[in-house]
Amino acid sequence: MEWNIDITPIKAIVMSGCDSKGIALPIITPTEIIQVSIDATDSARKAMITAMGEDHDSKVIIISVDSGGCSGYMYDMKIIDDPKDDSYQTINFDGIKVLVHNEHSIMLDGLVLDYNDSLMGGGFAMQNPNANRTCGCGLSFR
């Protein structure tokens, strides 16, 4: 089980015998980890193969979630050296390794990766059944 530490103060504690505020302790909550299932359309698979080029033996694609974007969260995709770290889950698409960190598994489960090669608005787009709201760009969700 992994632990997330939220450093946002929950409320100031009044210390007895003085009027000053005490410190607020962080909230520590466990992150639920599930076996992630991700699919990719044919066009997304072809685009990943093209992007990886000859590096598919030593490199991986990481799909992650960051806070931000116009809807609260943003997807991020990177090609990096294989971290060979058991805190990631691996999905294989036609010989291309796609990694998802366990911490993001619940948010990315059921994700469908698509690729549009149009001149305007082209690139990877995510279809996420867990998203309550998505942005028109396809890269931000809530």
CATH architecture: Sandwich
Q: Sheet with the most strands?
A: 5 strands, mixed
CATH C-level: Mainly Beta
Number of strands: 10
Please give the domain count.
Answer: 1
- What class would the helix/strand composition place it in? mainly beta
Strand line-up in the sheet with most strands: 6-7-4-5-10
User: Which fold name is given in CATH as the topology?
Assistant: Hypothetical Protein Aq_1857, Chain: A
SS field, number of helical segments: 2
> What is the percentage of strand-forming residues?
35-45%
- CATH superfamily grouping: HesB-like domain
Helix-residue proportion? 10-25%
Instruction: Indicate the low-confidence ranges by residue numbers.
Output: 6-18
Mean pLDDT: 81
Instruction: Report the order of strands and helices.
Output: EEEHEEEEHEEE
Report Rg. 19 Å
Please give the alpha-carbon distance between the first and last residues.
24 Å
Shape: globular
How is this structure best described in words?
By secondary structure, the protein is mainly beta. It has one domain (34-141): Hypothetical Protein Aq_1857, Chain: A (Sandwich), CATH 2.60.300. The chain is built from two helices and ten strands. It has helices spanning 42-52, 105-108; strands spanning 2-6, 27-31, 39-40, 59-67, 73-81, 88-93, 96-101, 112-116, 123-127, 140-141. A five-stranded mixed β-sheet has the order 6-7-4-5-10. The protein has a three-stranded mixed β-sheet with strand order 3-8-9. A two-stranded antiparallel sheet has the order 1-2. The longest helix has 11 residues, at 42-52. The protein is globular, with a radius of gyration of 19 Å.
